[in-house]
């Protein structure tokens, strides 16, 4: 949702912001390996549609958290206040819980449907 709100839902735009955040964080934390953090188009597409069985790699996590201001567990989970519905939808469809260790992330469809429900007061 944050990526859409900021209009970074184009891979090129998002990749530019991510790489800038990686450089910024590398300088602030004196962690040169973060300079190599980038996102492939396929990875970005998977992130955007929620096709993940686990969170991104650790260096990506710290850069994403720096860029977007939220822990990755929240960034890749259902939106705040909607976790019950997303959990039920995912449990019904996948047979898995949303909680670790078998982390199953809400799909973009689940998130979109929750946003529509919230918008219409359902």
What would your notes on this structure say?
The protein has 122 residues and is mainly α. It is 58% helix and 0% strand. The protein is built from seven helices and no strands. Helix 2 crosses helix 4. The model is unreliable at 85-110 (pLDDT under 50).
Q: If you compute it from the alpha carbons, what radius of gyration comes out, rounded to the nearest whole angstrom?
A: 15 Å
Q: What characterizes the major β-sheet?
A: none
Strand/helix succession: HHHHHHH
Name the structural class.
mainly alpha
| Helix content estimate | 55-70%
Shape summary: globular
The overall pLDDT average reads 77
Strand segment count: 0
Which band does the percent of strand residues land in? under 5%
Number of helices: 7
First and last CA, distance: 19 Å
The low-confidence runs, each spanning 5 or more residues with pLDDT under 50, are 85-110
Topology:
Elements: H1 2-5, H2 11-29, H3 41-49, H4 58-68, H5 72-75, H6 83-94, H7 108-119
Helix pairs in contact: 2-4
List keywords for this structure.
122 residues; mainly alpha; 58% helix
Give me a quick take on this structure.
With 122 residues, this protein is mostly helical. 58% of the residues lie in helices and 0% in strands.
């Amino acid at each position: 949702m944050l990526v859409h709100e900021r209009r970074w839902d184009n891979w090129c735009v998002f990749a530019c912001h991510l790489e800038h955040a990686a450089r910024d964080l590398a300088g602030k934390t004196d962690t040169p390996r973060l300079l190599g953090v980038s996102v492939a188009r396929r990875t970005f597409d998977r992130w955007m549609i929620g096709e993940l069985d686990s969170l991104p790699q650790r260096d990506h996590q710290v850069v994403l958290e720096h860029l977007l201001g939220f822990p990755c567990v929240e960034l890749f989970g259902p939106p705040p206040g909607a976790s019950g519905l997303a959990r039920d939808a995912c449990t019904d469809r996948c047979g898995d819980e949303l909680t670790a260790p078998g982390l199953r992330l809400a799909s973009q469809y689940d998130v979109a449907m929750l946003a529509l429900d919230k918008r219409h007061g359902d």
